[in-house]
Each structure stands twice: as C-alpha cells, then as structure tokens.
Amino acid sequence: MFEKEPPDNPALLALGNLIAGSHCAASTQGAVTNMGIIATQNLIKHLEVSVS
C-alpha cells in the first residue's frame, strides 16, 4: 500500500520479485454491501431519535 499511487521509485518498480498494487479493500462486494447496510442502520437510528 502506498500513500501515492503508483510510487515514484523506478528502482523499486524494476525489482523482478515485486508485485505492487493499489489498496482497494473497500471496493469488495462485501464491503460495499456492508457500507449500505451500516448507512441504512445509522439513518434508522437517527430518525428514531429525531421522532422521539
């Protein structure tokens, strides 16, 4: 995982045993599904408090 994608290091990228990729764990199907579920749960909690 790099702060800047891709890294500005040609020597690093020239290594024959390096596999580099962007960090995309938040883009999995499960993560996206969970984001929607959590957002909906938070909205319901907010509306329940607002109505009370």
UniProtKB/TrEMBL annotation:
It comes from the Bacteria. This is Uncharacterized protein. It comes from Cohnella ginsengisoli.
